[in-house]
Amino acid sequence: MNPNFAAVLIASLLLIHPAVEAQSETETARMVELMAKVGSSSSPEFSPDGKQIAFLSSLSGLPQVWVMPLTGGFPKLVTPFEEPVGGFAWSPDGKWLAVSVAPGGGLNSQVYLLRPNGSDVTRLTDGGKENNWLGDWLKDGSGVTVASNRRSPDAMDAWIFSTSGEPRLVARNVGIGYLTDTTRDGRGGLLDRLVSRGSNDLYYIDLESGKETLLTPHEGPGEFSGEFGPDGRTVYLASNRDRDLVAFGRVRIGNNGAGPIEVLAGRDDAELESFTLNEAGTLAALIWNVEGRNELTFFDLAAGRPRSAPPLPVEIARQLTFSNDGNFLAFSATGAATPTDVWVLDVAAGTYRQLTFSPHAGVELEKMIRPTVVRYRAHDGLPLSGWLYRAKGQQRPGPIVINFHGGPEGQERPVFNSTYQALLARGISVFGTNVRGSSGFGKRFVNLDNGALRVDSVRDIKATVDHLVSAGIADPKRIGIMGGSYGGYMVMAGLAEYPDLFAAGANLFGVVNFETFFKHTEPWMAAISTVEYGDPVTEAEMLRSLSPIHKVDRVVAPTIVLHGANDTNVPVVEAEQVVESLRKRNVPVEYVLFPDEGHGWRKTTNRIRSTVEIVRWFETHLGGGTPATRSATED
């Protein structure tokens, strides 16, 4: 990479004086590393005695488990792995941590046990290529729940692994199934079974006999998650049965099966995103998704009525967990200009306290750009929306990158995104859109792109461009398109269907050919994707017509392709097809392959390279902002 460009880029990223251009290439690399480390402390969990809190952080360069006192202090690194940790759970007696580790960033995670001080590391799962997802500990601490495809590659079954490593198959599945909770007496489990994307069911399962009781019967799409109450016979739910927006409810389990779902709290302007109960089962903390931002409320389970909560300190709150005594509620929080960190709410006092402080040396967070909601209409009148990050000083139509989220059931939200802020620092605006098929807007909206309806989602690409141009935001000759995973599909679909709309594209680990995707992805992923995308056996022609690779001869915009070599979700063959085809036609293309990553980037060095390459690509092909814009950004 040109060292002069790197110096200018880092000056913008760190919002420091342009005189830094004279720094050495080594100094530039050091500053990029500081920038890339911004924001990554999440997944908090209290120790059983409530005195400590564990969390995931990338302080060491890749996600690992750290522990610190609840009262504050310097965090201590716990996990000694050379590969990223994907999740963890603290044993009920506080003596063990169960962690999942992803070799090479792939999906073949393995589950380990170790002491909270990092000693006595033991692997529970078999190793190899099997996929293993860590759940939680049994209430008596005798083992952990795991979803694994060790029985069959095309199914993630529900298992229990004892602390000695003995596996026990709890439930066989077609697709994905796992235990989300177990009762305190150890007799029952809550089985979440996903047969197809957009539709799952919850079952009560007797862990001794294996007998299953369906708790959420429904027709068509339906989404449910749940947690046992203290009695083990009441399951509290997030449910959208017989309604468009997810609400908070419960179902009671009797001798003759499950009763009806009772809605306890619902909103017309928001979906319930997640919830958790305190240990006593007297209070539920509810997180609502309000057009992408979060709001916290409580529900008094004893009194049967809602309770207000203090406004959240940032836009997004995730991974809520109560301390065992119920006095504190921990969560990870982030915002467009706020790195992801762990916060704690004193429930009685109603006061928040930030517990972790992700490093951002050299980065002035107060100068980061926050987005505004933009609403517009699709070709058929469907309301769409997105988040506009306008580059400072940009009053006239200028360069802009439109980003499409993954999923496709994901949602564009105002979270901290270093690539966005880097583009903005170079005078390039960003628009993160929620086209049809996005989550957070109800059951109907999220299913509007299923199968053959995907053509309408692709048409939303043009509607998005048309709005940004007509609103005087985008220069029609300087529009870029970017996205990862399914967002990468939208990138290639947009470049192929509307070749005259875009000046450049960035495809991050995207699907381009549904035939090769279904052939090479994880078999369990293929099994649950036939409703969302189409059945490769019975709808092969439709899938072919929807695959951008068969129209790639229409792509003329310079395209950068980034992919992880160990990606088994969207295998690297998807990237190779695009690169080969564009090279044959002499379309400018750059291929960045990360040999030590899977589906997305977990290592700091790779995030650095990805951000720098993407920003360089778009500045080269879109141009940056006007001199006035750059001056306003860099001062």
Summarize the structure in words.
- It is a single chain.
- This protein is of the alpha+beta class and 635 residues long.
- Helices cover 19% and strands 35% of the residues.
- The protein is built from 12 helices and 37 strands.
- The strands form 7 sheets. Strands 9, 10, 11, 12, 13, 14, 15 and 16 form an 8-stranded mixed β-sheet that branches.
- The longest helix has 19 residues.
- The protein starts with a helix and ends with a helix.
- 52% of the residues are buried.
- The N terminus and C terminus are likely disordered.
Write a concise keyword list for the protein shown above:
disordered C terminus; single chain; disordered N terminus; 37 strands; 635 residues; eight-stranded mixed sheet; alpha+beta
Produce a short descriptive summary.
The chain is of the alpha+beta class. Helix content is 19%, strand content 35%. Strand 24 (293-300) and strand 25 form a beta hairpin.
Rg over CA atoms: 24 Å
In round numbers, the mean pLDDT is 90
Distance between the termini: 25 Å
Supply the helix-strand structural class: alpha+beta
Helix content: 10-25%
Question: Which word captures the global form?
Answer: globular
Task: Please write out the topology.
Elements: H1 3-13, H2 25-36, E1 41-46, E2 52-57, E3 64-69, E4 76-77, E5 85-90, E6 97-101, E7 110-114, E8 122-123, E9 132-137, E10 143-148, E11 155-162, E12 167-171, E13 175-182, E14 188-196, E15 199-206, E16 212-214, E17 224-228, E18 234-239, E19 247-254, E20 257-258, E21 262-265, E22 271-277, E23 283-290, E24 293-300, E25 305-307, E26 316-322, E27 328-335, E28 338-346, E29 351-354, E30 372-377, E31 383-389, E32 398-404, H3 418-425, E33 429-434, H4 443-446, H5 454-470, E34 474-484, H6 486-497, E35 504-508, H7 514-520, H8 523-528, H9 540-546, E36 559-564, H10 573-584, E37 589-594, H11 604-622, H12 627-634
Parallel strand pairs: 11-13, 32-33, 32-34, 34-35, 35-36, 36-37
Antiparallel strand pairs: 1-2, 2-3, 3-4, 5-6, 6-7, 7-8, 9-10, 10-11, 11-12, 13-14, 14-15, 15-16, 17-18, 18-19, 19-20, 19-21, 22-23, 23-24, 24-25, 26-27, 27-28, 28-29, 30-31, 31-33
Helix pairs in contact: 1-2, 2-11, 3-11
